User: Which sequence fits this backbone?
């Protein structure tokens, strides 16, 4: 077990300097030696942080990765391996055929995955003998919070656009909603990559704005809920493309009211996340239960319908929108868990 704390005496040397010794095993574990530089940062009025400069730079330079593809490997398997290596933080990923060369479909699958799924990546070498992918985005260039905000914005747009498409019977807009889901997933994959890197390096954890590694788990769950929100917009869009029939205007208007309420709950839950506001998160959990009132209004309006197919479609749309409010409540629950310490009573000194 690694010891994380030792008591050392401050000594005076020369005319104006104080020195403190460091345990030899700590220096050896970090791969440091005499003459290496360290950064000393004063944090508040009672804490000094010592960070080995060379170790920090080394942590940012994650080595390359190479994996080989068999001729009988299916495309989804190849893409899963590629995404896993992206998550692990490798800056350069080489994909090579184990023997001979790629099948055209395998090569296309890799190129499509880079384009549609992996944010900040570029193919710098492409041939039947191998593909080299480089991650160009800087670790701290786009913050996790910034990426989450972008995901929320996209998910919001998808849900508003899909109901507009339903209202106008606009099939092109419905297809655009489905395509936008790839963009939501790209941001999700990027965030997962950042979280995995942060968990592995305490310095980067702080640089990315996390208080502790537990927060990384919270953000991972939040990202999953936002991704699911986009998925429900896709389901509604596919419904329109499949049936190519409009919903009655008076019923669709009630569905739109329900959708706007669900999106307001989503926005509020994410606001509580960014503000680290425990009390606000609690209010959102209570607010999310009001979605049932909107749901009841929609379902009551279907009682006069005789078309079973239309009733089924409306019920499915309502269920998809209700799920969004439930995911928003889940996000607020995570915010509570991440900020529970703020409500604890401080012990008297």
Assistant:
């Amino acid at each position: 077990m690694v010891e994380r704390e030792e008591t050392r005496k401050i000594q005076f040397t020369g005319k104006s300097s104080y020195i403190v010794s460091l345990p030899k095993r700590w220096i050896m574990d970090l791969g440091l030696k005499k003459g290496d530089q360290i950064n000393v940062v004063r944090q508040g009025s009672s804490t000094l942080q010592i960070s080995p400069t060379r170790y920090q730079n080394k942590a940012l330079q994650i080595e390359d990765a190479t994996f080989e593809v068999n001729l009988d490997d299916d495309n989804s398997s190849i893409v899963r391996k590629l995404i896993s290596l992206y998550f692990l933080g490798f800056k350069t990923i080489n994909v090579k055929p184990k023997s001979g060369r790629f099948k055209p479909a395998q090569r296309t699958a890799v190129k499509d995955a880079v384009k549609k799924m992996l944010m900040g990546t570029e193919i710098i070498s492409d041939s039947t003998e191998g593909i080299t992918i480089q991650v160009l985005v800087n670790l701290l260039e786009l913050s996790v919070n910034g990426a989450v905000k972008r995901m929320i914005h996209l998910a919001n747009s998808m849900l508003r656009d899909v109901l507009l498409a339903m209202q106008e019977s606009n099939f092109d807009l419905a297809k655009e909603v489905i395509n936008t889901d790839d963009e939501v997933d790209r941001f999700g994959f990027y965030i997962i990559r950042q979280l995995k890197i942060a968990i592995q390096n305490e310095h980067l954890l702080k640089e990315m704005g996390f208080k502790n590694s537990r927060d990384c788990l919270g953000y991972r769950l939040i990202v999953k809920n936002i991704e699911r929100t986009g998925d429900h917009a896709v389901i509604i869009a596919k419904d329109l493309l499949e049936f190519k029939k409009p919903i009655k205007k008076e019923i669709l208007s009630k569905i739109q009211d329900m959708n706007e309420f669900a999106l307001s709950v989503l926005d509020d839950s994410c606001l509580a996340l960014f503000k680290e506001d425990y009390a606000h998160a609690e209010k959102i959990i209570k607010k999310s239960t009001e979605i049932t009132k909107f749901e009841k209004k929609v379902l009551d309006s279907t009682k006069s319908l005789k078309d079973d197919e239309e009733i089924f479609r409306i019920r499915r749309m309502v269920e998809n929108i209700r799920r969004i409010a439930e995911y928003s409540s889940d996000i607020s629950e995570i915010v509570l868990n991440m900020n529970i310490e703020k409500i604890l009573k401080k012990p008297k000194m």
